[in-house]
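Q: Hi! Curious about what Tubulin tyrosine ligase-like family, member 11 looks like structurally. Here's the sequence.
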Amino acid sequence: MSEHYERVKIELQQMKEVENEAAADGEQLSPASVSSIPAEVSFTARRDLSRSSVNGRSRSKSRSKADGHERQVNDKELPDPTAQKSNSSQGQSRVSNEPNLHIKGTARLLKGKTAANGHVETCVRQTDGKCEHHGKEDGSKAAKKRRAVTVDTSKAKTSLEALKMSIRQLKWKEFPIGRRTACDIYWHGVSFHDNENIVSGQVNKFPGMIEMLRKINLSRAVRTMQELFPEEYNFYPRSWILPEEYQLFSTQIRLLKDNDSTLKPTYIVKPDSGSQGDGIYLIRDPADLRVISGAQIKQAVVQDYIQKPLLIDKLKFDIRLYVLVRSLEPLEIYIAKEGLSRFCTEPYQEPSQKNLSHVFMHLTNYSLNVHSGNFVHSDSCSTGSKRTFSSILYRLASKGVDIKKVWSDIIALVIKTVIALVPELKVYYQADIPPGKPGPTCFQILGFDILLMKNLKPILLEVNANPSMRIEHEHEVSPGVFEYVPSPVDEEVKVGVIRDTLRLMDPAQRKQHATSNTGGGSPEEAIVVETGSDEKEGMADSLPSLCLKQVFPKYTKQFHYLRVVERIAAIFLRFLGVKGTMRLGPTSFRTFIRNCKLSNSSFSMASADILYIDITRRWAGMLPDSREAGMCLQAFIEAFFYLAARRFKALPLREQVVLLLEVCEGALEGQSHSEKPRTHRSHTHPNPASSQTSAATTFSSPALTRRRQRPLQLSAKANTEN
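A: Let's find out. The predicted structure is below.
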């Protein structure tokens, strides 16, 4: 009798055992509920199965083919999918080629095991990895099989080498030229739109992140938060946006020097779309600003230059920290426990007219200093021109510095910065992936560049949407001839960041996290820097503990009050109306005023139209590259601040905005649940009567003059249409 026929008999025997077991447990399995998935069964086997009358008797005949051998099925070479490797200390055990049976609708997997006498003994393998044999024990546990996570790396660009190493360590499947069917994860090198045809899975870029992290947009987002929370956001240097704020910048600097002639401040100019230090320079007077053709100042940000940085070995340095934004809703932020410290290559001196142009002294950018003759490539993590951040912390700790306090301040800086970015990112996200439209979920690794002042206060320099993930550097072997040499420092930091980002984005891990995470945050009142890992759960034992530490929602309680602008953005998104748009039209703005019950005898709908026209027109001039007409989120926030200031006079702006938010949210909630009227809450007025009086105040105050912008004036002669 043929070996093929013998295998068919074994399969039938297993199916009968399944039915017998189900009957013993009081279950009833129909033939359709048992799916046979042996390694070598083709449609021919099923045909023979139907023709043969097999009595369930098994013969004691050993397999003639070696375990793990690829068999010919329908003229195709197919490897045995049930092959498993044992980690026995006595050597590598043989690979099992026994057929498997899967019971549909359950997590039970039946596996046949051939005993020494040739009889087949089955075992039931449960989802928890435990095995219950219905025959002789073989003395070893079969490893739980799991489908390998698939990663499309066709668009990875410069991060490819570190990504490949990470995928190999995780034993996942890489698709370097893409895949016809969907992958679990898509790794893009530049932006969300590197591949426009993704409708599922996960992409390592958020829509709009590149735009939001340009120098001007980042400054606008942080300055909005500075207006509401000046003390909390004092980690970002004072900034002016050029060319629109050139006159303001010139006036403020002139007044500063007139008040104190001994002051000699220095300012750093950063091009809006520049990267890797390109186009950055220092000035001491507004007249030193460089112009482009047509005597027009290039779009840029001017900031106060930090003149007293912390020095190590008499050199200025900055810190590159990697931050993972795992999701926007709910907001999840992780910080890498290890970062890079990048050093200047010329001893630091405070700025003077003589050394303003010394880029190797003042600018810490690796891409600039690597061309210095003093740049030192080192295999050590604690020496050279690029070192690990932990080596700097150890050195500071040896001098008595409280490094936990340093870390705590850095964590707070990161969380506050991401909170400032989230409102606009949500608008971009909804424009690209509207609710109800198929699309991927997103995550992204950001590069935070942070400078420590002499007093150890962290200062945010910038945030990079596409931080370099290269793990090698160029080495000039002869004039004009370069070769890539591995960089141990880069590899130690960057491979861990990418690998552990993938571990966190593992579809199985995300599903487990979604069911277990309630997002309640930490009950702690202060950030506590822990020495142990709190992200080990659910990770592979063979891999090191995660180098990424969750900081949000872990510290929700400490920072949730800062998410005021997100509430404004939620109202903005509610009234956008058209899917895929990012601008509010005049009709939608009127609907917002009407539904939130903000119009009355002193602020008519005509006044709302004038407000819309004035703000929208001005922002259109500040955003010349915009192709879409209407009111952007930043313009809507300005209008919201204006309405809040008019309605609640003589209060700090933050309290005005919070009170107006409660008015709007209450009105909108009342529309959705008219049977449950909402009681107003006030964080400002402990006296209910006082609160109601304030809420009833009409728009009688003069126009709000915002810092950095000219006063808003409403023209009564403007012609509007209802």
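A: A fun detail: The chain has 19 helices and 28 strands.
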